TrEMBL record:
GO terms for biological process: 3'-phosphoadenosine 5'-phosphosulfate metabolic process; phosphatidylinositol phosphate biosynthetic process; sulfate assimilation. Converts adenosine-3',5'-bisphosphate (PAP) to AMP. Mg(2+) 2 binds at D85, D88, D217. Keywords: Cell inner membrane, Cell membrane, Hydrolase, Magnesium, Membrane, Metal-binding. It catalyses: adenosine 3',5'-bisphosphate + H2O = AMP + phosphate. This is 3'(2'),5'-bisphosphate nucleotidase CysQ. PANTHER family: 3'(2'),5'-BISPHOSPHATE NUCLEOTIDASE 1.
Length: 265
């Protein structure tokens, strides 16, 4: 894999998809449909998916592609593939809360190694460079060439005063019970894969997720966090979260800075 070409392509497609999403987001109204799993989908999900899928297939025709909006892709199996969530945080999008992201990642041998997370309404763009290190680009987000970037790194966490980030839309008692096992300095809520990025930048120390997610929800954020020195482990046995699983469904997991001493579930 030509990682330079891959990162350039993923970055450009994420920015282009962001433009399409924001055009719909800023319109007076948009239709919301419900998929077979009861999750919402909008014209923005579908338009962004079409754009990203076409771009990836043109650039990397020999690499397996899995995308949330194309059910036929979910029947494929492999441990190396591109994986896309064209609009993560659809509920945030529908309620115009801004915390939604475009997510594109490469998984190799079950591990997300390169990824881009773009939050167009927040003007934040995170990605792994060709060498696997993670950066945040500070704009002005020229599609032809990357602008100024800053390396990002997880916090040197102090277990006596942790910053926790949790889901805006999926917070529950089980999550709160687990968080209460830690000495928490403060908490923040965020939508979509931004939670991984907040741990990656050191703005948070730990993100526990005790709820349903799919691999396309997490792969890009996982890659960004890993490239910043962070880890994502299964909640049940604290082993690394792997990709290419049957049906692409994730178990509960914990994303964290390595300095955090994880509590037993």
């Amino acid at each position: 894999m030509d990682y330079t070409a891959l990162v350039d392509t993923m970055r450009r497609l994420a920015l282009e998809a962001g433009d399409v999403i924001m055009e719909i987001y800023n319109s007076d109204d948009f239709d919301v449909k419900v998929k077979s799993d009861e999750s919402p989908v909008t014209a923005a999900d579908e338009a962004a998916d079409a754009l990203i899928s076409a771009g990836l297939r043109a650039a990397f025709p020999d690499v397996m592609l899995v995308t949330e909006e194309q059910a036929a892709s979910h029947t494929q199996s492999g441990d190396t593939f591109l994986i896309v969530d064209p609009l993560d945080g659809t509920k945030e999008f529908i309620h115009r809360r801004g915390d939604f992201t475009v997510n594109i990642a490469l998984v190799e041998n079950g591990v997300p190694t390169r990824g881009v997370v773009y939050a167009p309404a927040r003007n934040r763009l995170f990605y792994t460079t060709a060498d696997g290190q993670s950066v945040e680009e500070t704009g002005p987000f020229d599609k032809a060439a990357p602008g100024a970037t800053s390396p990002i790194s997880v916090a040197d966490s102090d277990n006596a005063a942790l910053m926790v980030v949790a889901s805006k839309s999926h917070r529950d008692q089980a999550t709160d019970d687990y968080i209460n096992k830690y000495a928490v300095k403060d908490m923040k809520s965020a939508g979509s894969s931004l939670k991984f990025c907040l741990v990656a930048t050191g703005e948070a120390d730990i993100y526990p997720r005790l709820g349903r997610t799919m691999e396309w929800d997490t792969a890009a954020g996982h890659a960004v966090l890993a490239g910043a020195g962070g880890e994502v482990v299964r909640f049940d046995d604290l082993t690394p979260l792997r990709y290419g699983k049957d049906t692409y469904a994730n178990p509960f997991f914990i994303a964290h800075a390595p300095g955090v001493t994880l509590q037993e579930s």
